[in-house]
Queue: 2 jobs
Job 1
Amino acid sequence: MSKSLLLNSGFHNAVLSLAIKTIKLRYKNSFLGIFWSMLNPLIFLLILILVFQHINHIEHFALYALSGLIFWNFISASILQVITSFIDNAAILKSINLHPFSFPLSAMVAAIFNLLLTLIPFFILMFFLGYQINLSILAFVPFLIVSAGFILGLGLFLGTINVFFRDIQLLWTTIIPAFFYFTPIAYAPELLPEGQRFLLKLNPFYYFIDSFHDIFYRSQFPSFENFGMSFLIAAFSLFIGYIAFKKYRKGFISNI
């Protein structure tokens, strides 16, 4: 994306308007509204406690699982929203002269806003589960930005391909549950035999979830390895997302 686009006030207004529209549509005619975003991780938390707690030797297991679940839901759901943003806004893209990048970016903004809203009640719950706030909370904002870069880049790459091959969206929803179990959200990496733990680090989601565990479970700053790898993965995702989007965006109108 050109520097002039990112500095354009009209582009910013369009992104904000689309993000607000996305949030309103998500909870339109919903009695519980934003609380539906809390229900999913709470249900999963109860299941994980029943299934995994007896095989883990993790102190404050509920806090460990909940902090992982909150950010897993954020990452996995946000990527899907970015992937489908072009298709979901096909009518707008065809009828109004908006830069196509407005749609994935607005989906990302809406996802962050939704996360921040749901974090308010979850913070209260996490305190009851043993969370101890300290200076490590300062790492949350920069790490959220890095995570958003990863989500936007990967979603932009897959979303661009999805315009031409709708199987991408279906493929993503098929494989993402496998990544849930391949990521140490509700189990400690030490649960695996030492010779197999390196496999976890082949999973890009590992570094993001483990960093959120650092901040909200271990009450410490993310390790240098976690932050460094997360930054590199985010930068690579943005790079390939940008390359794919720049190369194929001209064919969007005729394929959505």
Job 2
Amino acid sequence: MPPSRDIKSLLDIMAQLRTPGSGCPWDLQQTFASIAPYTIEEAYEVTDAIARGDLADLCDELGDLLLQVVFHARMAEEQGAFCFGDVVEAITRKMIRRHPHVFADRNGVVTPAHVEGAWERIKAEEKAERAARRPPGGARSGKSLLAGIKAGQPALTRAMALQRKASSVGFDWNDPREVLRKIREEADEIEAALDRNDAKELEGETGDLLFALVNLARHVGADPDLALRGTNAKFERRFAHIEHALSEQGRSLESASLAEMDALWDAAKESEQKERPTEPPVFQIPRDH
């Protein structure tokens, strides 16, 4: 099958991959749940290509993300739930509905304020309609203050959103130092779980610690995702220093001891600290708590 610019070709490829007997064994065993992490990963790959300004890579990554949409739609079609055409129809209907100033036959000047007001009103109407379609008594029935926080967000982002929403009604600490005490408490609980060697408990306690760290980030005005991205980049720089230093000695990572790698890490850290500006950044604590 030759490459094509027609979306139908991509739909046909996915149908072939999911055909029992002649399709791909890996694709056939996938479910919505097993594919979901790849969907999130591809969205991050798109964001990364944009951040790097690599438009050629962005083209490829958008294709990968589109494949995720086609994959989910195909699995839904197999279950008789909906197909790719339904997905396209739903989003076109939504965009037309949310832009009456563009698609409706109306006269007069429309200001950005009018557009924003209409957008929020229409989104609220759509949210109410979705809530009305849900079975009564469900966990997301809309009665909870936190019901509007989307479950599909990355965990760090959703933790921040949950905390902000709770803070809006006063369920929050007033001092970042109180959050620090909570972090120490969670670390102690992890240590106790380590003594019990309980894997499930350790997972839960680690989640509690991460949630507390997100809370600290919120209180000091830092975005936890950006903060972690910065730390990831710092780790890569310092680890690259270890690799480079060992390479200059004609050695591999495997030949070095942990103590030697730690010493090279400390050297990289010291070098970075010397290159820092003399004026430290000033953080302002947001008053949302």
